[in-house]
Amino acid sequence: MKFKIICAVIAFAIPISLKPAAATEYDPINTMSAINMAIVSVHRIASSRDRVVLDAEYKNIIDNLSLGNIEDDQELIELYKELMSTIGGKALRQDEAARIKARYTARGKENFVDRLAGARFVSGNPWSFVGVLLSGEAAQYFGAATLFSSRERDGENDELWRLERENLEDLASLQRRLLDSSWTLLRKYGLPDEYRLASGDLDALNKAIFESDPERSLRMFKALEPNFKMYAPFWYYYSAAASRAGDAQSASHCLDEFDRAWRPVLRRDPFKAEAAKLRAGELSRMGAPKASIEEQLKIVLENSTRENWVNNLFAGVMYYSIGETEGAIECVQLNLDFDAEREISGEIINNMRAGNLDVELFYAFIGDMYLNGRGVERNLAKAVEMYIAPADAGNSHAQMMLGGIFETGDGVKNEEKAAIYYAKAAENGIVEAAIRLGDMCRDGRGVDGRRLEDAYMWYYLAQLQDDARGKARIDELEGRGLLTFRSVNAATGRRARERALLIFEGL
């Protein structure tokens, strides 16, 4: 109770003024849009019972109102005062928010890389391809509201995130007030009933948003169309669901409906930014004029915070794909300047400054991130996924990394595959791969029994590249070391050297 009193005093001590800046005739749909945003936010918080979702809704919706675009309506003023006093005090502290940001960034990278691993670059502009992949990644608001709604806290104390019973009761009361006020405002402005959201439909909307089956999700959204016709975010979620289901025509139609229903009631509207990303991605796939893509990118940036690394990276990649190098680097540089994300952004900027995107190297770079746990959680299986394509395309670094993972990696060990990729890397001039494969052939690991002639060949290939280990191991095979016995005869050694020379001459 003490907490509620303090928050109420703070909220009422700061006067709120909702007043359109322009002298033109006011659009009452702005008011209904603002209250519908609040209704859905409170419902989402109460449904999740989660402070992380509360924090995301408070920062991105409730405390993000564009005051200059909304009528100075006392009913709405009082509602938003109560929203801020009830919800604001439960928002995350700075240290808690920092932990969430770190986890969101890691999850966001993993999601992006998962999509990258499951796709393949096609002919054409690879920068545009990366941008299209990023267009399907949600911004920070959506990341907090969805990725963390599953209550996976990575071992952290669940009490930190759970809303207390008293807070849930406050939210339920607030939800009833919001719904009652929507009736009052609807009558005041003479708007039809389709502009009002009903409590019974909100649970169904959440189910449609979180449904994992794309086809089922799409059917659920279609059934909900009459109930959310004038709620713009509904059409964004609907479009995203249609995209996941592969229905490009419905996705485009939903974006048109989003534009029809959207009103400028938020200072930075995360829904507007995400819709613009989907549009820019579609325009890029269609080969649309540069100006139309730039228009959407401007909308993305205008509705994103500087720290929104996904949107900064998306805008940068898309700008680069249409030849705007300076603007592209400027967008991505924001991630580095504000410590929003460094690993992928740094690699992308290096490629931009070099004037190209080396697709195979980019895949291998992501593999390195997973192998070393740099910027994402260490995951050998995902590292393998990212290395396979560049390795099979002839990238020696990826071949070497795969050899090492398959030779010793927990859960993915496969010495036969290790030998295959070490051979590819050695034939591409990687000395370490030649030494390791020589050892495997000498010991009979990953090959059909001990293969001393092959071991001699790989060691000699390393020796030809001035690696002292190659000569030392050949000395052992030829019995030159103390307490060693000859393992290969002169004829075997000669054949092995001839084979190694053929490989060396081809390097």
Describe this structure in words.
It is a single chain. With 507 residues, the protein is mainly alpha-helical. It has helices spanning 2-13, 29-48, 51-60, 74-87, 94-118, 126-135, 140-147, 165-189, 199-210, 214-224, 232-244, 248-261, 270-286, 290-302, 309-321, 325-337, 343-354, 359-372, 380-392, 396-408, 415-427, 431-443, 452-464, 468-477, 490-505.
Using brief descriptors, characterize the structure shown:
disordered N terminus, elongated, 507 residues, mainly alpha
Q: What fraction, in percent, of the residue positions are helical?
A: 55-70%
Q: For the terminal residues, how far apart are their CA atoms? A: 76 Å
Give the helix/strand class: mainly alpha
Mean pLDDT: 86
Task: Report the uncertain regions.
Answer: 1-17, 149-155
Number-wise, the strands total 0
Main sheet summary: none
- So what's the overall shape? elongated
Instruction: Name the beta content range.
Output: under 5%
Count of DSSP-assigned helices: 25
SSE order, as H and E?
HHHHHHHHHHHHHHHHHHHHHHHHH
> From the alpha-carbon coordinates, what is the Rg to the nearest angstrom?
29 Å
